[in-house]
Amino acid sequence: MSEPPGANAPIVETARLTLRPHRAADFDASFAMWSDPAVVRYIGGKPSTEQQAWSRLMHYAGHWALMGFGYWVLEEKSTGIFAGELGFANFRRDIAPSMKDAPELGWALAAPFHGQGYATEAVRAAVGWGDVRFGSAARTVCLIDVDNLASIRVAHKCGYDVFERTLFNDRPTLFLERLGAA
Length: 182
Known about the structure:
Blueprint: E1 12-13, E2 17-20, H1 27-34, H2 37-40, H3 50-67, E3 71-76, E4 82-89, E5 104-109, H4 118-134, E6 140-145, H5 149-157, E7 161-168, E8 171-178
Antiparallel strand pairs: 1-2, 2-3, 3-4, 4-5, 6-8, 7-8
Helix pairs in contact: 1-3
């Protein structure tokens, strides 16, 4: 049986980062990031359990295998250190308005990498990859807690604009979209 398209995430490089597929060996660093209150403050607000972090890692692999897109590990080139995770997903969220028709971009960086421009660098790289994968005119979306000013700035710098203000998990949330080049 042949491997499904996209079963392995491509490697994308930026000046300071390598966006690469997850490995089982990334689990400890991923779990540490997702269990850090500073990281999850605006992403659900509750640190992940080991089981939740493991399920997230499995979802990442499943997205690449089944959808041909997914999440990457962000690895700092100069040190090889795990810096975070980002990518596109279809979470099939039960929300209105529905975003099931568009790849949803998300990102999280380990606390030592906050405030250094890594998120913008990584999101720009992911968006560039998405323009090729989905087509330069494709719509992609993201949702961000209204208090997460740093991520809102990153999204705006990378071409995302607010199309809805709503509640998600009982928190005020912005739904943003990038329409690409028509």
